[in-house]
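Researcher: We plan to redesign the surface later, but first we want a full-length starting point. Tokens attached.
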């Protein structure tokens, strides 16, 4: 049997080795403290669970869902965008439900990338942008995120030949793994760049609702003209402690949303309606709920960053996201330092190079 090249090209999924190492330690009876995968340990809110139980009892929710999602779900997303970002969206054409943002992100490449095409993505980055492109037969040109640029893309550094050939640009702020945030002026620059070179602008906004210190994250769709070329991916996973329920959505330019709907409807049959009702309930959670949830993360953030700084590992407090991105001590690679932490302190962290070679020299907690 011969496997396709795309399978042979796949790197091992980042967290597989980490999970193995944790299992090995646990077998030896050792209590491991894991700062590995970004998966909330706070339960899904009761109101959201109630929505699942109630809707699961109704036979109309036992059937195939529509790929694009229930009108009620899309209306709830439109309302969220209006209330939260003051962005007006047509729920019928500019919003689509996803089986988690990851699914939509991976499938988006099939909408824009032909074999040999170029996608622009950051380094480090959430790995799915590159993998989706690879599955579609395309190649990623990486844009390094550097501390000295506040981990923002420097659009002037992109060679014109590459920009002319590029079909997509992937951005993600608040950023995983660096914790960086983007000002509106940066999003404006991104929209201008993508318009100039006719590039589909794909923004992963998985962490806009997980923010600290009164920081309010914008949507890229707030930029004038963004609706001409942009699609934004959202997820309730980190926002409302719902990673297991797989509720995500994309919103933006109607032709882009329609292309994703057409691709998806040929591959999947959408997200179970009961889970969509969970999403509707989550989108209705009060501002106070979000505040208290983010307060828990803020306390943990402060604890971890203060400890790191007190032992001489200079670390900044991120204003958004779930991660702390910090350099490893001199003389270690990311992997060596992560291994040392596991072996000597029973602490699991993610080596920064798992998010791209520009992440070498860093770890993510
Ligand atoms: C966690 C994460 C996702 C995945 O979200 P799901 O809705 O759970 O698929 C997408 N993008 C980034 C940057 C993430 O960290």
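Model: Full-length starting sequence:
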């Amino acid at each position: 049997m011969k496997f396709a090249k795309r399978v042979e090209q796949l790197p091992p999924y980042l967290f597989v080795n980490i999970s193995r190492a944790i299992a090995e330690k646990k077998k030896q009876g050792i209590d491991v403290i894991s700062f590995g995968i970004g998966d909330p340990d706070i339960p899904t809110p009761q109101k959201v669970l109630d929505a699942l139980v109630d809707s699961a009892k109704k036979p109309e929710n036992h059937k195939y869902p529509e790929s694009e999602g229930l009108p009620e779900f899309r209306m709830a997303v439109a309302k969220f965008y209006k209330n939260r970002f003051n962005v007006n969206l047509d729920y019928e054409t500019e919003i689509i439900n996803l089986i988690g943002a990851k699914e939509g992100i991976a499938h988006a490449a099939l909408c824009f990338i032909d074999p040999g095409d170029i996608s622009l993505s950051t380094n480090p980055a959430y790995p799915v942008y590159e993998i989706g492109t690879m599955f579609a037969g395309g190649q990623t040109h990486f844009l390094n995120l550097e501390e000295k640029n506040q981990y923002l893309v420097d659009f002037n550094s992109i060679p014109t030949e590459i920009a002319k050939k590029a079909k997509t640009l992937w951005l993600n702020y608040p950023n995983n793994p660096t914790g960086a945030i983007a000002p509106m002026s940066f999003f404006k620059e991104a929209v201008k760049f993508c318009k100039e070179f006719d590039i589909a602008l794909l923004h992963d906004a998985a962490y806009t609702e997980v923010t600290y210190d009164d920081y309010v994250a914008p949507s890229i769709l707030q930029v004038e003209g963004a609706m001409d070329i942009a699609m934004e991916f959202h997820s309730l996973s980190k926002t409302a402690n719902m990673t297991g329920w797989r509720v995500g959505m994309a919103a933006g330019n109607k032709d882009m949303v329609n292309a994703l709907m057409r691709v998806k409807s040929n591959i999947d049959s959408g997200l179970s309606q009961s889970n969509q009702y969970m999403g509707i309930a989550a989108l209705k959670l009060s501002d106070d709920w979000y505040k208290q949830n983010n307060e828990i993360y803020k306390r943990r953030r402060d604890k971890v960053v203060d400890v790191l700084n007190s032992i001489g590992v200079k670390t900044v407090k991120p204003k958004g996201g779930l991660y702390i991105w910090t350099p490893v001590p001199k003389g270690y690679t990311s992997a060596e330092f992560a291994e040392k932490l596991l072996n000597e302190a029973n602490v699991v962290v993610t080596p920064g190079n798992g998010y791209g070679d520009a992440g070498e020299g860093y770890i993510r907690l």
